[in-house]
Structures are given as C-alpha cells and as structure tokens.
C-alpha cells in the first residue's frame, strides 16, 4: 500500500465512523425531523442554483438549460421523499392480533416493522451531476429510509461535488443533526471505492455507472466476510421496436424524435435507445433513410470525460467491425459525431459484439424477418432498463408475444414516446434484469426507491414501547 492510499483509506475510516455513530439516531428519527432535512436540502440547493450550475457546466459541458432542469428534478425528488416520510411510508407496520389456541389457527401477536439498514455508500454518477450525485435520488431515498449516507464523489465533477456537499453539511449543522448523517469521500481511485464498499461499517451500497465498474464493486460487496446489499444500475442498450403499423402513420416524425433521443446529452443517458428493431418492410426501409438523414447533422457537445469519449469510440469501433455504417460520420466538432449502424437479427443474436453498449450518440438498426425473431432478439439482450414498442396498440397474438418478451427482459416497457426521461413518481421502475442492474426487484428512481434501504423485522409479543 502506498502512502497516498494509506491516507485515503484512513480518511474513509474517519468518514464511515461518523456515519456509524449517527446510524441509530437517524434510524430512530421522527418523520418531521427527516422531512425537515430533505426539504432544507432542496431549499439550499435552489438558493445556490446559479453558482452551482455554472460549476457543473464548466466541469461537465452539459449546458445550463439541461443542468437547471436537473436541479429542479433533484429538488423535486428531495421534497417528494419528504412527503413520503410524512406519510409514514418508512414507518409502516403490519399487525396480526394474537389468536388463542394451537397452530396453525392459533398464533402469538405479531407486528412486521421496517428497520433502516444502516450507513449507505452512495457512488455518484458521471452523467447526472445533480440528480444522481451528492443530493440525488439515492441519497434522498436512503435518508428518507433512515440511513446515513456516505457519498463517493465522482471524479468527473469534483468541484461541484464539494460545493454541493458543503451546502448540505451546513443544513445538517443548522438543524442540529449529527455530522455523520451525510458525509463525503473524495477518493477517486478504484482501490478507494473497493475499500469503501468492503468497509465493515457500510451496510448497503448504491451505484450508478458503467457495467465494468459496477460489476467489480458488486463482486467486492459479495466477497466481504459479511456481504451487504449492492443496488447497482449498470449498462443498458434499451431496444426500441418500431412496427410497420406505427411507421406507416408518421415515419418522418418518429425518425426525428428518435434521432433526438439517441443524441440527447451526447447519448450519455442510461436509457438512451441503442438498438432499433424493425421488421423487413418498405415502411422500415423508408424509416431507416429518414433516421439517418435526421441524426447525421446533429451537433453534439463534448462528453463528460476524456475517458468516457475514449470508451464510446472504442465501443463504436467494435460495432463498426461487425455491422454496416449507414453514413460516414462528420469530423468531430465540440463532441463526437453521431453514428448509425445496421445489421440483421440473426447476426445480432449470434454475435455478442453487436450487443455491446455504445454509451454515446450512436445506435444499431437491426432488421428482423418475423415477430418470433424479434422475440429471440430480445431474449439475446438478456436484461435492459427499457424496451419500447411502437405499434403494439391493438390486441393480437403477435403483440402479446412482444409484450411478454419485453416484460421478461425490461424494467420499463414503453408503448409510445422514447425512453430518455424517467419520471419521479410512485409507479416508476428504473432497474431491470442483469446486466442492467444487480437487483431487478428494486428501483433507483421513484418513491419505491426507499424500500431498498429498509429491512423487515417481525416483532412477536413486543411491548408497546418497542412498537412506538
């Protein structure tokens, strides 16, 4: 271990110790206390919004309009979880009165309660400097559940992470709460991340990022002497199936909409549609030409990090070796030029290289011969955050097959619109089968996200003071 590593690990020890010291107090905090913190954080974020957005734009290049929208989403989430807390969602109990007699009819008095897991290590995402970072959805949901949060800042926006954390720490102090309720680790090394995940004081991990990085940390969490839950959102190629019936109505409009979704944020969205599935038909052929025409001239901005652009170029080059490029990309301007490739369903199913995520402004068009082949294609994807079905509006056996297959591999199935843009609400599901996430029964967006950080406990014949 180097001296630098030793210092970083020592700092992590100190930060986690503060979180551990605050865990019981925060787990037992009243709804009003938790809600006040969440709303205070939202207010503080909005009060410093212009300065924070300027820092975020300088570090990420995402643009003020996008970043202002992200601040609004972050504040909305914080206040939304405050409302959930006030509705006693994390405090819900299920009670069964005692029944005299022997089992199975007889039983003792039981109460099923929820208990906070403990300190959560939250790994910030690169592509959402606000909404999936220091005060993002993972932090908000964990705090609402009664868990202290140890934020692992992302190296792509270090100055912003420090600035947001400082305003959050001030709110914690002003409300008279323990310092360990919300803390920050700034170590940018992989070793530091692994050390945090494996720290005995950490009770759960929330991660949003790459498949490679997430898988490594997930394995580290499971290699602990006492493994802990790892809620990871990893990679996703988000297939979009456009049936001829939908294309016959407005193929040009759909092409423009899809081109905008593929290139939104320079393609740096976990829900960006990366695979466009079509049935062989004249409508599909026209749509491909219109999509290529719509996407080719779109100007992108710089990617979040040089490493991210290198990864995008590498993935796009791999796909280019196994598929046909539909146009020659224009020379780079501020950001990488959009790419569009084409292949057939049989090749896509047989060749894993074609199923690689291109995290950037690119997509692969796949043409299938039949609905059965589309179903086989979805099964080959294995797991994805979203699947979009354009044209499956009428009842038919083919559409039933598509819906069944889409639900089998996806966390969210869309029948209109595009998958970029994830609403924060009660019905949302953001998480799908592996490799899109490590815990497909949970969501990282929406109010059900706080359920990840609660563990049910059955209390039998408990005195009144224990039940609260």
Automatic annotation (TrEMBL):
Domain of life of the native organism: Bacteria
CDD domains (alphabetical): ALDH_KGSADH
The keyword Oxidoreductase belongs to this UniProt entry's keyword annotation: yes
InterPro entries membership: Ald_DH/histidinol_DH (IPR016161), Ald_DH_C (IPR016163), Ald_DH_N (IPR016162), Aldehyde_DH_dom (IPR015590), Aldehyde_DH_Superfamily (IPR050740), ALDH_KGSADH (IPR044151)
Stretches assigned to the Aldehyde dehydrogenase domain: 9-410
Assigned keywords, A-Z: Oxidoreductase
Transmembrane regions: none
One MF term in the entry's GO annotations: oxidoreductase activity, acting on the aldehyde or oxo group of donors, NAD or NADP as acceptor
Signal sequence coordinates: none
Protein name: Aldehyde dehydrogenase (NADP(+))
Natural source organism: Pseudomonas putida
Highest classification ranks of the organism: Bacteria, Pseudomonadati, Pseudomonadota, Gammaproteobacteria, Pseudomonadales
